[in-house]
Records
---
Amino acid sequence: MFLLGHSCWSYLFSKTTGRKLNINLPAYLALLSGILPDFDIYFQPYLVHHTYTHSLIVIIPVVLVLTYFFGRLGFAFSVGILSHLLGDFMVGTIPLLYPFYPNSDVGLNLGIPSLADTVLEIGAFGLVLVYAYRNGDYKLVLKPSRESLLLAIPLFALVTLTLLFAGDRSIQLAEFAFSRRALTIITLGHILLSGILGLGVLQGFRWYLGKKRARQTTNNASSPHPTI
């Protein structure tokens, strides 16, 4: 599954879990959690992609540690991480017990890109738009806030991981992205999601600048005026 589907499904799963547990997982963490297993791309060639970080042998201890230290928030975040494995299991395979059993790949292998994968990715994106409207996260792209600025984290991950993945495999990204109808649709989804996150980051910068101006105004008002 591409990063579009991973980030969107993790948002849906982790935010829903957080709601059931009466905690509010920030949108940037909900989007980031599903991308986290692909962070192995940052460490290539020292860490082979789609091995350790896609194995339950590694992921389950991570889930236990996050839940132990961060409680319900950590568990909701962990559900987003696990959704990554579920997505890859559906459209491809995952090395379930790597490295103890290197050939333990399992999955439905529906294909990527394929009709099933396209429906899963674009469908998740559409559901995110609806859910974000219902839970109020849509305000992150309309009003200045600190959390809006934090959307820069998943945006940075989406862009850099895509570029690094393509570079490591000598893929002509622009040509590949529009080489098939399914890829074109998924690429447009990536562009739209990145654009929405970018708008949120701009609102975050507005919040930061506004806070900075307010602090300067307060400091100027409290400083003693010179007397003659």
---
Amino acid sequence: MFNRAHQKMEVWRLIVLRRNASEVLVFQSDGRFRLPRVKIPAHGRVALALNAQIKALWSLEVYSLYPLPAVPPDHATAHYHIVEALEYEAAAPRTAQWLPIRSTTAELFIDHQDFTAVETWTGSLGRSNTNGRRSPFEKPGWFFEFTDCVQEAIRPFRLTLTGNFQQFNASSSFSLIRFESNADAIWFKAVGEPNGREFPLTVALSTCLSSFTPRVLATLPLWNGWLAVEAQGSTLSQSPYFHAWEKAVTSLGELQAKSIPATAEILAAGARGIQTDWLLDQCDPFFSLMESLMQQQSKPLPPPLAPTQLLELRHRINQMLRRLGNMNIPDTLCHLDCNPGNVVVSSTKCIFLDWCEAAVGNPILNFQLFLDYFRLHFGSDTQAESALISAYFRSWEGLLEPHVVRNALQLAPALAVFTTAVSFVVRRDRKDMASPQTSAWLRSLARRMHREVEAASALQFVA
């Protein structure tokens, strides 16, 4: 069983606001003040955990606005988050008080960073983009105006908000909130850059592939977001049963096949093109980058790939891509983030969530990514894996010959890794590659690609 005592925690300092952001919550100590602090699990959903902790510790009902950048920048361990009380006259906890924002001075605070954070936040309120399209969730009070918009949008569907909600993500331009209603729960999601394209993509897919995507009730352009009915069922991450994965992979194949006539529309809505020709064009720049990253490796193990190995790997990937392209498999919609948490299965259907990583390309590469998650979940169960592949084959009956799919699957392990790596690199600035974590991850993908290419060289292809 997981030992909670060993769970890594992180401390967040809070700027908790009240009365139209005219007051901030402070705790007293020896005649001076400090901002509230809470501990939450690291690497989790910050807004969800903060809101829950604030309620548990101080009985305050709040919603989160956004995290403040590190203040000052060289103190990256000091995390600050802006939070607002839902009640105008929310009571202060014991040993705390509401301090007028205009009364804050550096001398009042025990820790100067706390005052600097408050000063930084008040200065940000004057920015011209506050509550605009770029940063719609910065302005205090946005939640109250927003919930009125939500209620108005769902009224035609005879839905009424109950007042209960869970806020999962919060930032100046991103939001994810689950609202309870008198019937099904309603999800609101808003996206900003670099994921702004998920908004038009989700709307387009809800129209042309509605059987496989959440039902969108309304769009809220001011917030760059949409409202969707909660998908019924359980995510694959919650299911230990093979039949759920079998149903999901069958639905994936059906989704891909039905998307073929709509690929132009899907690309126009913002999906990335990862067709074979595009992947071929990425070979030279990608492997040039990898040669540089391998040379930068400081640790002896695992050993970096030598320039000659990278040259051979580039040649082999190029050959495999050309072979895949010659199979004339139609390009389809691909979900490049089809992890088990993004797939909801019920007794009647399968719904795919989070289309930020939507692309148009070879469907077998998408299936390979799904198969990788299946192996993580079930281990080396060859019988179950064979049954899963067979289920996927059946969804392509009448469109592709079985031997074509089987041959493509032999190329897919290496090419799926290449597609993952290239899709990541092209979306980021070259300077991002200098991050030790990023460069180490890319090197690990290249080594895995090398292993998969070696394994594929021993396979027999069916004519």
---
Amino acid sequence: MGLSEHMGSLRRIAVALTGLVAVTVVGTVGYLILGFPLLEAVYQTVTTVSTVGFREVQPLSPAGVVFTIVLIVVGVGTVLYNLGVVLEALTEGHLRRYLERRRMDHRISHLRGHVIVCGHGRVGRSAADHLLADGQQVVVVDTDPDRLVGLRPTAVHLVGNVTDDAVLRAAGIEHARALVAALETDADTVYVTLSARAMRPDLVIVARARTAEAKEKMLLAGATRAVNPQNIGGRRMAAFALQPDVAEFLDVVMQDEHLDFRIQQVRVEPGSSLSGRTLAELDLHERTGALVLALRATPQNDLQAKPPSGTTICDGAVLIALGTPAELEALSRLGTPG
């Protein structure tokens, strides 16, 4: 059930309960006007609307009889409507799904720095599995609830259409670190990219493109990176054919979470001990054990492989380093103020 269906079910329940309360209030006020004390007016209203059939607490005048007849007709109809709505919610699973949606909303509201995966097909599922294996917080969104069956318990899921801005907000886009768009069509992916970029100008957006032309459009729409899985797969196959050991090494480093070493990017925050100093001065390999493979001086610059020792590290620079988790953690601490 999608987000809009949940809201529709909730609205029906709210309308039913509002009608029941209104009938009770009107009945109580009517009996007060007829001269009943407050407690007896409430009691007479409840017994009448619920069709319990107890005697009247006070003799009714002709006006009281007419009022009671009207209250029975309106009240019984309202009670039956409430009963139907509740039974529908129970038999069709609306209530269970609503409570599950509430739990998911509560979990999402507490997430910070998570990744939103839009679309849980083959590409989206692979991306979500890799992120979860790396210990990242993930919110998976898809229109088909059957695709979300079997998700890891650590993953939060949301059934809805991400082309709707309300669904992106429900997925916590305001506090996300990145969004992976892997939808069924390039048109939907471009639309989501445009919407996400408008809502979060600083968000990292990775879009799946099915064609080279679509890749260019996604970059124009605001994607940080546009990826064609078929092209990447073909290149990897060629790499395994020509340089199998190199390709295997990169595969292991990037995808095996149980390995003792990995490649990771480290951002240099303003005020950190790395900022404003050269690589030679810092001697990062000696201090942390991590090996700096590449450097991006600013977001606008290209990656520089094997940066010279005289390169000065500026605020906002990104280091690509190879090392064990402990070594990379030590490097990350150096890139953080304090």
---
Amino acid sequence: MSTAVHSEVIELSTPTCEKGIGKLILAPDSKDLIDGVRIQPYALWPDDRGYFLEAARIGQGLVAQFPKESTQVSAALSYPGTIKAFHFHKNQTDCWVPVQGMFQVALVDLRKQSPTFGVRNTMYAGSLRPWQILIPPGVAHGYKVVGKDPAFLIYLTDRFYDPKDEGRIAYNDPQIQYDWETQHK
């Protein structure tokens, strides 16, 4: 499949991967990140009443290039063990801000011309690792809620939701072979 993204044409294809979780990302500046994926810790201020956090500032940080007129802010609550994967966008950029609970985030580069085509990234983000995750078009993404508590995800997109822009791949796709089981390391 081909699609135009920001005036460039990208070809998307489901890669054939070995079974596993791909490259584990432990730092925002990891050299193993899929091309175009960016991570930035978000500000969090705890006190004796709870905490305050900034999900994002429009015009700054990872969402600096998101247009004010079409940026959408959404949220999802998922119960422990829930897997929501995989989907991708042809044009839309996402910025995920997991603010409660813990997520096992899985990314797969579907862009045939990308230097990281077929690379999978796994990161654990949420209450214990407060990261914003920028996901460019053509990178399939999904998550599993890990731990015993529900998890809450705030996400910003650089354009309003358009179902024609979204594609889906099964969480257990036999080509991607992402291993959603606990790793028991």
